[in-house]
């Protein structure tokens, strides 16, 4: 039995929304790094999936930790705000919370080879590489569960979210060399 065009089409808007959410959230995450660095007086180069001090060197280890923390803090703040809207019924807001969780899960996987934000901070604070990732992922998992609770979205929504998230993540990671860097 073939699905109706309306049912098939339900996947497309969800995929487009998920794609946009992932790209925008990642850019805002990186801008968080960039603005933190700028606030501390550094020239910062921001790309779609990376922000760095232009000189490559920080004046102190504390400055490096602050700049590393800024991105995940922005992501968690966005997820907290979106969770409030999701509790009021917004499906898009629930998708934002889910995208925040997925972004930090991907960052954790990447940290197996290249320590990402939470891994660098956690290690520098003597907590082991995975402690802060565990805390952030647990918090975002709880927010996602609460945000999705009772929504009865169905497999088409989750398939669309998966497709959009996958394509958005691919653009952010693989497209980094295609897009111009911004200087803060």
TrEMBL record:
<feature type="transmembrane region" description="Helical">
    <location>
        <begin position="127"/>
        <end position="146"/>
    </location>
</feature>
<protein>
    <recommendedName>
        <fullName>Peptidase M50B-like protein</fullName>
    </recommendedName>
</protein>
<feature type="transmembrane region" description="Helical">
    <location>
        <begin position="65"/>
        <end position="85"/>
    </location>
</feature>
<feature type="transmembrane region" description="Helical">
    <location>
        <begin position="92"/>
        <end position="115"/>
    </location>
</feature>
<keyword id="KW-0472">Membrane</keyword>
<keyword id="KW-0812">Transmembrane</keyword>
<keyword id="KW-1133">Transmembrane helix</keyword>
<feature type="transmembrane region" description="Helical">
    <location>
        <begin position="158"/>
        <end position="179"/>
    </location>
</feature>
């Amino acid at each position: 039995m073939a699905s109706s065009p309306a049912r098939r089409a339900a996947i497309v808007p969800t995929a487009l929304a998920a794609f946009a959410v992932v790209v925008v959230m990642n850019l805002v995450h990186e801008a968080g790094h960039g603005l933190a660095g700028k606030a501390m007086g550094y020239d910062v180069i921001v790309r779609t999936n990376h922000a760095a001090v232009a000189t490559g060197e920080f004046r102190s280890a504390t400055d490096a930790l602050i700049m590393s923390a800024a991105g995940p803090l922005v992501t968690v703040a966005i997820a907290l705000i979106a969770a409030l809207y999701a509790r009021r019924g917004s499906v898009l807001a629930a998708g934002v919370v889910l995208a925040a969780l997925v972004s930090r899960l991907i960052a954790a996987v990447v940290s197996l080879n290249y320590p990402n934000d939470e891994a660098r901070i956690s290690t520098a604070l003597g907590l082991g590489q995975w402690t802060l990732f565990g805390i952030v992922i647990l918090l975002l998992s709880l927010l996602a569960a609460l945000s999705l609770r009772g929504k009865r979205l169905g497999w088409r929504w989750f398939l669309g979210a998966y497709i959009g998230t996958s394509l958005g993540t691919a653009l952010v990671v693989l497209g980094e060399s295609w897009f111009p860097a911004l200087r803060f």
